[in-house]
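Possible regression after last week's pipeline update?

I re-ran a chain I had predicted before the update to compare outputs. Posting the input and the new output here so someone can diff against the archived version. Not blocking, just want to make sure nothing changed silently.
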Amino acid sequence: MARVCIISHSHYPYDARVSRQARALVQAGHDVDVIGLQYEDQPFFQHADGVSVYRFPIGRLRGGKLRYLFEFVVFQAAATALAGMLHLRHRYSVVETTSVPDWLVFAAIVPKLLGARVLLDLHECMPEYGATKYGVPPEHRIVRVLTFLERASIRFADFVTTCTEQMRERFVERGAPAEKIDVVLNSFDDERFTPERYLSERPASDSFTLICHGTVEPNYGLDLAVRAVGILRDRIPGLRLEIWGDGTHRPDLEALTHELGLHDRVFFNGWVTMDKLMPHLAAADAGVVAVRRDAFRDVTLCTKMFDLVSLHKPLIISRTRAVDAYFGDDCFQIFESGDEQDLAEAIYTVYADPALRLRLVRNATARNEPYRWVHQARRYVEIVERLAGRTRAASPRGTRAESPRETLAEVAEKV
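New output (post-update):
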């Protein structure tokens, strides 16, 4: 049994990836501590479901570069001190840190110096993330600094995991050793949220409900979804769009909905926990993921995509390099990013062809089988145990279960 500490600038258990990882380690028999942020009235310390959680009352607010930097620095200092003190008490085998930011990995400095192994879980490509967020070119000073910090963070860690093969390729292109990085997909936890519990036969209805869920920010393209509903209001009389989530872009979307006269078609429902969201996802006719394609989004996969695939919902999604590699046109109705007319046509195509909806769901379900968390969790635990010296298993890169290059037929044979 190993003792593992996970440090994440996020809210536990609401950060789905960290929550899944902690639960997978506990189920494998390991002791887990999590250091994160406090959300509303959560206690500083809590022990629940086998995980000991320490939370700092540091607000995770959206703002300018200086606001982000201040918050990261304060959390980094606090997490470094607490991780050091906890290591003296518990003697961690492995300390894992998650991005953003990459350099949070240095919060593991004391445990590393005293013998712990360090795992860095890179959720984002920070240079691309920074360039996209602040609208600056790749040669900008901010991007160069983020690139330097990314390299230094990877060099400091003993091993690195990331979310897609495309992200791993970027890190290797910037000089990271290929053998030091592996992929653990950020997929849906269908063991905790059993899809079958929520799926049932629904009575016939004249309505056709689309659903978008998650953070409401400009780069997620929800304004395109609203405009597409406006384009289709006469072609699909019963069309509805439900938006579940919150963010800085919500007031603009509400104003756009009012401007287009879509208050009876577009509905804003705010943020809810995943267990409360699941019945609404299950009740929808199709999901929309309209992210705007850029250097950052081209190499990432939205977790909301896996949620909808697991619930057997046909998905209308913008084209990116990662989406093409892992799923493709035979699994999703794909439209060109940023094109509201193309999105509207994609929605109408899915609406008008029930057989297409069934075919997309069948293909996506087959392709998704090796990506399911039950398989990815096993991969993640093997990596942690290998770092902790608990197993002599070969490197997981020798048994890649989630290769995006597998054909649909090859994947279907494994199901």
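Follow-up from reviewer: compared with the archived run. The first strand starts at residue 3 and ends at 11. Marking as no regression found.
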